[in-house]
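re: ur msg from earlier - yeah i can do the 1-O-alpha-D-glucopyranosyl-D-fructose complex, just paste it... oh wait u already did. ok heres what im feeding in:
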Amino acid sequence: MTIKNYPWWKDSTVYQIWPASYKDSNGDGIGDIQGIISTLDYLEDLGISVVWLSPHYDSPQDDMGYDISDYESVYHKYGNMDDMNQLIDEVHKRDMKLILDLVINHTSDQHAWFKESKSSLTNPKRDWYIWRKPQYDSKGNRKPPTNWSSIFSGSAWNYDPTTDEYYLCLFAKSQPDLNWENEECRNAIYKSALEFWFKKGIDGFRIDVASMYSKASNSKGKFEDAPIIYPNQEFQPAGELTTNGPRIHEFHKEMFKKITSKYDVMTVGEVGFCSKQEALKYVSHAEKEMNMMFLFNVVCVGYDGDKFDFKGFNLKNFKDAVISQSDFAQGTDAWSTVFIENHDQARSVSRFGNTSTDELWNKSAKLLNMLEISLTGTLYIYQGQEIGMTNLPKNWSIDEYKDIETLNYWAKHKIEHPNDSESDLKLMQNIQITARDHARSPVQWDDSPNGGFTSGKPWMKVNENFTKINVKSQINDSNSILSFYKKSIQLRQLYKKLFIHGDFKILDYENEDLFSFIKSFEDSKSYIVLNFSNKTIPFKPLVDGELELLHTNVDTPEPGVLSPYEGRIYI
Ligand code: TEU
Ligand code: CA
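and the outut:
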């Protein structure tokens, strides 16, 4: 097959590295590029073919590098350009690929472009960001131009006294949104953020908030207020006006045509939520925009708007989410992704598995892995997922949490609910389920102090369960989650037509305990049955014909029953 209709990235297994918490090589307590290089053999042995590195660029780190002050340089605590060149080489030497994070919806307010833009109304880069005049209420109080709320709490506008105007910042105040309506700005983004790194030989990008560059305005070019969803709040979510906007596909097509199409690279866009029809516009092959996308249906199941007002979910909700994430691509020329963790989500075994005993932790982490390796699309694994890393301990106070999203929300809550220990507790319980911090504690490499992450003082505390959960204790244990992942990845490659490319058909949608489905490709079939409950359940195959057991997370499966969190993959 030619590269055109069968590109390398479809069959890849991608491993996401979040550099601050991955591996520290010099004892300053912060992960770094040399630390990553020292583990490439480990990743190769696991069966990883693509490394995705989360932002390594120069940044004040208000949002852990998603606030970039210079696309063309490396954050000094992670290393320098020589380290990056070496990383690219070392990855390629092992026949793996390296993709980077492309954060181009916004920059840091410390980026030279923003400093210029902010300096005066007439600066040539004024229009590279989104500036608007204040509004005034009847009493003459200055107000932001619209009621839009920031994704990280508060207003999405920040006032700048230099020119008496507000700039748009849909995330942190220090992350001003770039103005994609300005062509000169777009070309500068393409050159600095994309071409610079393509020329160095990287193999693609994970595209941050790829659905948000085009903001909707009315026919007079004016931004309008978002509908009121939370009547007792001043600022309202503006997702309808700021995601999947009127020119978003035009922008992606332009970026692909001008830049990305000139290289043999992959792109995966963080889109979040959109309709099936919209999804196909982003990732259908014929549309020439991006190769694949991350939808959040699975990782946000139970959120229903406000993630810190967690609603919970049942297995049916979970099934719906899994189906919708792959369904849109089936039978089309589009491609999908499979993932259950990333740096913005809590740990999957804590959310969807069962960590109440060591045995259930081990079994349910493997169960989730069996689901993942059976689904169609490119598979993504987040650092530490392969050893079953869990959420942070429940006895950690808010002081151990470091993420801007969590801390802004907490601060807003404390202002709105002063001295209300009951509601503090309720929020804390939700933070323990959904905070991004759970994914951000250091990777647990061994049972030495700080889990072998650093010889110094880690920037964020290591989860105390590192003495039990770590790479070293699992690497030679054939019953470990890590060994299971390795075998799973091999099986997925061996039966790639079924697992990576096959059609998915659910068999037991109504069942509240079991998740069973068929994968098929031409005349081969696989039957997958997963017990997502803590109960022993009578089991009768839902398919005819002879079944050969290919993979399971128990030693000796008993005929006629499935034990708690037992999974089986038959072919
Ligand atoms: O996240 C975009 C995004 O939509 C987030 O709001 C996400 O839904 C949230 O973190 C879930 O709690 C991307 C990055 O992945 C994230 O780390 C950055 O903070 C954000 O963009 C801004 O760059
Ligand atoms: Ca370091």
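cool cool. DSSP finds 16 helices and 22 strands in the chain. ping me if u need the other ligands too
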